[in-house]
Amino acid sequence: MYLSQYSDEPTSPSTTTFSKNSQLTPPPLLPCSPPFHLAYYTPTNADGRQIPGDSAVEAAYDVFLKQFPQYRLTWILDTLRRTDYTRLSRNSSQHEVETYVDYMGGSLYPESLIRVHTEFLANNVLGNTHSISASSQLSLKHAEEARRAVLEFFDAPPSSDLDNDSDEYTVIFTPNASGALKLVGEAYPFSKNSTFILSTDSHNSVNGIREFARRGGASVVYVPAGGQKGKEGAFDLKEGKRILRRNQPPQGTSSLLALTGLSNITNAKCPAFSIVTYARSLGYHTLLDAAALAPTSRISLAHLPVDALAVSFYKMFGFPTGVGALVIRKGFLRQLKRGRPWFAGGTVDVVQVPGKVRTMKGVGEEFEGFEDGTINYLLLPAITSGLHLLSAYLPFLPLRLNCLLRYLVTELGRIQHRDREGRLINKFREGETEGEVCRVLSRVPKKVLKTVGETDEEAGAVISCIFLDEAGETLPLAFIAHSAAHEGISLRTGCMCNPGGAAALLGIQESMKDRRGMLHSANVSQRASEEQRGRTELGLVRISLGLGSDWSDIWRILQWAKRIGDSVERKKMWQRWLGQQAEPVDEWEEVEGGAIRRRGVISCVPCKGEEDATCVRRISLVEEAWDTTIGRAI
User: Fold this and answer.
1) Which residues contact 139 (CB under 8 A, 6 or more apart)?
2) How many C-beta atoms lie closer than 10 Å to residue 219's C-beta?
3) What average pLDDT does range 50-76 have in this prediction?
4) For bias kind Polar residues, which ranges apply (predicted)?
5) Backbone angles phi, psi at 328, to 5 degrees
């Protein structure tokens, strides 16, 4: 619920925000005092039972509130969790509750958003937009509403405030943020005098643009991401400006700077305003990957005048998947239009067949020349509803997530390895933290937010960490992922499609740059890359918070981490994990006179025979020559 400035009565987002006839912009929000039961909220199941029916939970929550009393100001998100995320608390066949902490991978949709959109589809006839029929025109109407909603959400300056329409923004709907970034990369006029500049702490969808740059003869230059304590993944502003100056595009040449608004692994925010303003003054085009930033941060294109911005809506409010957007200046879009490498249905007016003549669409609306095929007209109305919902709750999110993340980092740092009698186990090397179970490597928010509407300009709501055994050795990511899944915890392991950010956190940037340490084959595998660097795994464990997160999620994460630190409990987890493993490889290659079979064999080697030690999982690759005429190895 939220309050309109026009009334003292609380209104429900599900009725006000999602009404089919509602205004595109929801009423402004005003903070108000929460009802009594929400001011003293404790996590409950769908039937109202406290989780898990233990006074220890209530005591822990009271301690949390004493440390972060400002958390109470975000009570409106407790209401949302209770009404729109009931599925997390329903008893399932495996888990009493689900703990979802992978919001960076995809947000969870509010249930009211699905109900309203389902009702909308059931009561309306929508058709392909390439027609003048009533169903087609209804689809077009809602597509235009969605475009306007996107522009309003990102505070794009209206045309009346601009000197010419080249600075006006338009919206191109894409399958996702990756598709939006690809649209820019494939059509950008890279040349031998061009430069493509990006941070090493970038998603692979940004890294992938370098393929188009190199194909056009342009140079590719990376701005290093910090790996030292306190500057994890940080965009080095001083070095970035130096690189921009050194590679300033000559007159008549186009160069592109791609920025990551928020890293999906290091949790570092980019100093976007400073770097964008400087880059534009030197003649660069600017592209912002806002996929990780937009779900929890307000972005104003009136304040941050990038040439293009890419987002995925499922990361913002969970539904629908398969729809993203490129918000782009019309003047920049016209430059890209000349470089589009192909055309498709919906993007052209005239095509000569056979022949070479083709006329691209976009005389009236430039976006038409970039939306390949038919737009996702059945789901675009949900974009408008989702943006309205997120607009209502976005002012409260930074404060809430700042409290939860800071508390989680502090409490994880207090968990230590214990034996079956509860005594501290310490086999760590000198200089390491005594008995630590979890080591957080990503950026931790320094700023303590105190009020609704306040934001942190340096960090988001992501923790990237590693889990350690009693000797300080990193526990396998596959074990952590299996253990979490077994307890109903949804998190992510690996490099999160951000190898540069992962390398910065793991301290292996130099080996990433070392050509002698990197295989050049186009078929290089992750396993081979790991072996080249002398590491068993190149990745981390990621916990990310978002729209539906509350304190109960943090509490369950901490209980799970404590069990990893308990030697008896972890041994049970380990044996359960090993019992789930199958032989990872069983491949056949036909050769003259028979075949070669390659299969993986798993063996478990106990650590020096110690009673409570965790065994080491080893995988060996065995090659066997087979005589296919007799059906056995020879």
Assistant:
1) 126, 127, 128, 129, 377, 380
2) 16
3) 86
4) 1-23
5) -145, 145
Model confidence pLDDT, tens digit, residues 582-594: 545 556 566 665 6
Checking if the pLDDT of 25 tops 50, the result is no
pLDDT mean over 568-578: 92
DSSP 515: G
Question: What SS3 string covers 515-580?
Answer: HHHCCCCCCCCHHHHHHHCCCCCCCEEEEECCCCCCHHHHHHHHHHHHHHHEHHHHHHHHHHHHHH
Distance of CA 378 to the CA centre of its chain: 25
Assigned domain for 508 exists? no
Beta bridge partners of 530: none
- Kindly state whether residue 438 falls inside one of the protein's structural domains: yes
CATH of the domain at 95: 3.90.1150.10
The closest alpha carbon to 270, from 205, 199, 204, belongs to 199
Cα separations in angstroms, 100 against 69, 104, 197, 488, 491: 24, 11, 35, 8, 7
Return left, alpha or beta for 332; rule: phi > 0 is left, psi -120 to 50 is alpha, else beta.
alpha
CA dist., res. 323 & res. 110, Å (int) = 17
The pLDDT of 113-130, averaged and rounded, is 96
Max distance between CA atoms of the chain, in angstroms, equals: 85
Name the strand (E) or helix (H) holding 624. strand 616-627
Whole-angstrom Cα distance, residue 502 to residue 230? 16
Q: Is 231 within the bounds of a domain?
A: yes
Split at pLDDT 50, 70, 90, the class of 102 is very high
pLDDT recorded at residue 514:
62
Give 422-482 as a 3 state SS string: CCECCCCCCCCCCCECEEECCCCCCCCCCCCCCCCCCECCEEEEEEECCCCCECCHHHHHH
What are the residue ranges of helices labelled H in 188-327?
Answer: 204-207, 209-215, 237-246, 272-281, 313-317
- Per the listing, tokens 């939006």 go with 180
Rounded to whole angstroms, how far apart are CA atoms 601 and 593? 26
| Rounded Cα gap, residues 581 and 184, in angstroms | 42
Residues 184, 77, single domain; the answer is no
Q: Report the C-alpha gap between 109 and 91 in whole angstroms.
A: 19
In this structure, the strands spanning 219-223 and 195-199 are parallel
Torsion sign (Cα): 385, 387, 388, 390: positive
pLDDT recorded at residue 490: 97
Same domain (yes/no): 144, 191: yes
**Chain CA centroid to CA 277, Å:** 26
Both 573 and 590 in one domain: the answer is: no
Q: Is residue 531 part of a domain?
A: no
Question: CB burial class (10 A; 0-12, 13-18, 19+) of residue 13?
Answer: buried
Question: What range does the domain containing 336 cover?
Answer: 130-378
Check: CB of residue 406 under 8 Å from CB of residue 412. no
> How large is the average pLDDT for residues 552-564?
97
Over residues 531-542, the mean pLDDT reads 68
Specify whether the CB–CB gap between 481 and 283 falls below 8 A: no
